[in-house]
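Case study 2.
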Amino acid sequence: MKVRVRYAPSPTGHLHIGNARTALFNYLFAKRHGGDFIVRIEDTDIERNVETGIESQLSHLKWLGIDWDESVDKPGEHGPYRQLERLEIYQQYAETLIEKGLAYKCYCTSEELAEEKEALKKAGHDKLHYSRKCLGLPDQDKPHTIRFKVPDKTEYTFNDLVKKAVTFKSEDIGDWVILKRNKIPTYNFACAVDDHLMEISHILRGEDHITNTPRQLMIFDAFSWERPTYGHMTLIVNENHKKLSKRDESIIQFIEQYKNLGFLPQALFNFIALLGFSPKSDDEILDKAELIGLFDESRLSSSPAMFDKEKLHFINNRHIKKLSDEALLELCLPYLNKAGIGKDETDDWFESLIKVFKDRLVYGAQIVELYRDFFEHPFKIEEEALTFIQQDGVRNLLETFKSKLEQAENIDPDTIKSHIKAAGKETDMKGKMLFMPIRISVSGTMHGPDLPQMMNLMGKKILIDRLDKTIGMI
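Prediction:
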């Protein structure tokens, strides 16, 4: 059987990191096995649907690097791909179940159902199942739902790719609604019908869906359809090992937010692929082709996947370091322009800025923060650095270097290098005792980016001002 998998979002909001992982794992699985990846839109929750929900989901999946073989924008033989366009199909299958005696019409109002449930609670019942009082009633010309008649004393066992053998008992599940009064199917009924008709072979999804599985298996068995293989991925948790909640503001959770901050799609793809999957690789920095080649469903974790922000930042920084200077400038320039940074500067100045901060940059928007921390905050020398420049000969070195800068008509990285060497030669300062005091005098720290490039960015006025302040501290 050909591998066919699906990602089935509801257009009720933006692409969340958890849903993105579901889509990505299905995509990797399909590509690894030479199969098809389908995006099906489950839009039957009419009240919660957002007008731009479908467009938002698809555009951010594409930005992330995930494409599909069939969907609303790429129809195949198994459409339509929106459930609201498949209502006649669900109606037909629901009526077939009634004809087979496996489903029945329920005329109870919501008030009657609420009263029945409340009576069961007061009587101390732990299973608040529907009483089946409409089972066997003759057809009536009034609004109704259609309920599936759950088989008595039946076990539903399936071999989950992650959880291994899982069993549910039918007595734990009451007769459930498959078609609502408005003729719209419930989630589990539509899902099972679509998975069969679209020839879905494997279903990878979050473990919060595992309790849906027995109801879906009931539909497969009722029609004698071949069951798909299920794999329920563990939850994503935060650094406190609590389930990732959309209300958790300590973690950025929507793909659009990462895009707007200037994270790289290939880095986010890389990071999400490692949330609950451990490839056979010594390297965590992997591109799409490598992840497809390494994907192995047997290596999906049975433990919760922790969302490690530091790991995400590390992975994105490593992917940034792989970019050409031109690509990195293209990433960062919109944020610099929006902040009004460098509006009177040359292209060379921007190129120097990118080179200076490339190794430290975690995401595109951070370039503004790095620039401001370095150039706009009050100049201050760290305590350890201040102790270092108290050594003999440093004051003379800085005064000599400052004099050379003052006499220079223009400065650029090469000119700065030559002035540093000349100042060192005149004051007999070499190596660390030459470069470290100059770095400290202009940056306030003992470590940082390429010194000539950094000093070129500052410009002559700021350099001389900082050298004056440093000399005054010695």
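Residues 391 and 474 are 9 Å apart (CA to CA).
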